[in-house]
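Long-time lurker. I teach an intro course on protein structure, and each term I like to show students one example going from raw sequence to a predicted 3D structure in token notation. This year I'd like something fresh instead of my usual example. Would anyone be willing to generate the tokens for the chain below so I can use it in lecture? Attribution to the forum is fine with me.
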Amino acid sequence: MNNNKTLIVLGIAAAIMVILAIAVDRGVNRPPAASQGATTYLIQGLDPSAIGRIDVSGQGNKTTLRKEGKGFVVVEKDDYPAKTSVINELITAAVDVQVESKPYSSDPQNHADLEVAADKAGTIVKFARADGNEITGLIVGKSRDRGGNFVRTTDSNDVYITPSVPWIRTAPMDYIEQQLIQTQRNDVEKVSISGPDFKYVLAQDANQNIKLIADIPAGKEFDSSSASSVTGAISSLRFEDVKKAGDNGMKFDYSCEYKMRNNIIYTLNIGKDNDNYWASATAKYIGEVPTTITQDEPQEQLKEKEAKLLARDNAGKFAAEHKGWLFKISQWQAENLTKKLDSLLKDITPPDANTPAEANEPDNEKEGV
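-- Reply from a regular --
Happy to contribute to a lecture. Here you go:
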């Protein structure tokens, strides 16, 4: 089993190296553009591995992406890690821009009118080395009446026409994975919610039947109709913004614990800053950790052990990645995660006075005689 895991890891690493090699080759040794007319690639010879910083601006947004370790971070969001696939999409979009081979204009006096001037452009993407020295960049100007857009590189005055403009993300949150937790509704086994003046537990079976465990006031009973909004609150939990946790005086009055069937517990502590809800997030594994795995074990038993190890690893990874961060969640999501006990209760309906009471059974029938 250990040998199999080693082979899997080596296989994944090899696949990643192939992808990186393809990306570099695509930027440095790209073939001539296939075209019906005389066209070429606007940006040529860009080595993705040399990029240490990317600046994106447009649509009223500004985003700075800085290389850190094996990935990038979003500077405007306290250096929160950027999503690698979106970074790759950005680089690919820039280097895949094709233009007519002859410049439309080489006079910098025309840049403002064509909206490719540095201070008057639709979208600008700049690629720089780690030391800040610019490598090249893309400036997307206005559209042309006969179709296409005016574009140029940041290191040239030549303006070209491109038949199609790539969609380029410009907002900082566009480069961040906003999915905080993703689960299936029936993966939740138990939910523990507590607030300043209440606490309760919702237990859910595999068929999503929900039971309330709490001190229920006299005259009240459990109203299960709204309970699923609590148990399902983390099934697709997203965040709208992110920042580093710090001593900002925010009180986290609400605590939510979601116990999953695979023995992972997700914990969210939620506070309110003005009208915004912020949450910290962590996870831990509380199940059994297999200590030995042998090749002669039944396949089903091996799968169970591997599932436990995977759950442990996933919980540890989640805790490490989200430690020290606060995540802004939407109001409706926060309301489900902080739902008060009163919202899960309803008045006990008294029996109808016109309904005849059922006849008492004889004692011997009650005892099963």
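Some talking points for your students: The chain has seven helices and 24 strands. The mean pLDDT is 88.
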